[in-house]
Amino acid sequence: EKVKSLPSGKAVRIEVTCHRSKDADEGQQELDWVVPMRGGPSYEVKLRANFVLPDLVLSSAQVDFGRVLVGQVKRITIKLRNEKAVPVEWDYKAPRNKFGKPLPPWETAYALSPSSGRLLSGETAWVTVSFTPMASKTFHQKLALRIVDNPNKKILSLHGHGDALRCEIRPSSRFELGPVLPGNDQCTREFSLHNPTDYPITVYSVDFDREYIEEEEMLKLYPGYSSYNIAELPVRGAGAGTWPEVAEHGNKLRREQERKEAAERRRKERAEAIANGEEPPPESDQEPGGADEEPGQDGAPEMDPSAFPIRVPDADRLSALVVGPPACGKSAVAGALAARDGRRALTLDEVVEWALSGPPSMRAQADREMRVRLLEAKAQAEEQHERHQAELAAKAKGNFVPEPLAHHSFSVEDVAHLIRRRVALPDCNCGVIFDGLATKFMASQELAAEAIVRGLEERLVVLGVGLGGHF
């Protein structure tokens, strides 16, 4: 740009733009720009630019999942770090079909969560790679992470092998019993079952095993299915019973159905008595198991105690609290400890949400009053937060993204009481394993820890995972 005339005391703005192709090398670029002055001295301006190519550093570019059973999910967490001086925006595009729609889960062995992000200089993010084999074979895949303003993609090489459970019938799967007279039980053939896999298996008859039939009915009614009709549940060991959450929901629906049938029978009995000119039986003031039923009345229990026959005496019962930084594997440790010793794995949010749902074991007057008070406090906090976000949105000039409510402020005494009521259920007969201190119902993890200590009357041990000796 040529400046023809610049009056005394005036200024002119000159914009200098530096361009460089995406495939050029990184580094500093310098230019000595001489500004000539007509009738005066020339000025030398040194222009310097530092060209930085946005990039990510992966904690591991190759991930080996090993052997995973078909239908199960294994997750591995990797770290993304931005060591460049500029922000980095990245994303991963999951495979799609020819119509541009995402492939269903049974057609993709690997998935990445989250699938996009933005990192400032020096920031770190954790992403989870999941492997779900749907066949007994080896799965190789490369996930390409696209980086804005970088023509090169970050490649994540994944490897895993799917194993299938199977059983062999020996010496043959076909037997000829021949002719036999009615009532004769002497015509028999023996066969053996062989497990050729490296995993323990449970064998049952889908036609005659009553537990299997009941479990299938419960799974049909379970609400935790995704849009693809898939539900993710904890891995069960060989011989383990139905998942507690599935059994609880199924038993709840069964009790509701029994109450409806009992009410219908009473209605018919009263109608028949009135039609026959007899005095009808007295009408019950409330339904069995209704909202006003006190614990210990004739309503069905929340859990069947016979499903948890092993009970550790209170004096010998030992519970654990597993703590650690995010994505350190503490949830896996908590789940493994719970499965090994028959303890119940819980989180504080699960305990509070269970109590707020109005379970049968919390129908005493004091429990109902506490539940109503906590629900009112929760609703009031959410309403105030929504009003505050609306005020911020009205003041904002551009697009405003509302922030979710970070946490509620339930007291230590209230949460400790809810913990005591929850661990009194039969599924906690051997103790509990608390998975971390993160909760949306308390103001800090310190308060959460205090609530757990107060709520567990038995002995408690604290286990640190991934703390590197700073525990």
Your description of this structure?
The chain is α/β, with parallel strands linked by helices and 471 residues long. The chain contains 7 helices and 17 strands. Among the domains are: 57-163, Sandwich (Immunoglobulin-like), CATH 2.60.40.10; 308-395 and 403-464, Rossmann fold (3-Layer(aba) Sandwich). Helix 4 (348-356) crosses helix 6.
Instruction: Profile the largest sheet.
Output: 5 strands, mixed
| Class inferred from helices and paired strands | alpha/beta
Question: What would you call the shape?
Answer: extended
Oligomer: single chain
Helix content: 25-40%
Strand content: 15-25%
N to C succession of SSEs: EEEEEEEEEEEEEHHEHEHHHEHE
CA(first)-CA(last) distance: 64 Å
Number of discrete helical segments: 7
What does the average pLDDT come to? 84
Under CATH, the topology of the domain at 308-395 and 403-464 is which?
Rossmann fold
Question: What is the class of the domain at 308-395 and 403-464 in the CATH system?
Answer: Alpha Beta
Rg, alpha carbons? 33 Å
Q: What's the CATH architecture name of the domain at 308-395 and 403-464?
A: 3-Layer(aba) Sandwich
InterPro entries: Hydin-like (IPR033305), HYDIN_VesB_CFA65-like_Ig (IPR053879), Ig-like_fold (IPR013783), P-loop_NTPase (IPR027417)
Subcellular location: Cell projection, Cilium; Cytoplasm
Pfam family, one: HYDIN_VesB_CFA65-like_Ig
Region (Disordered): 247-310
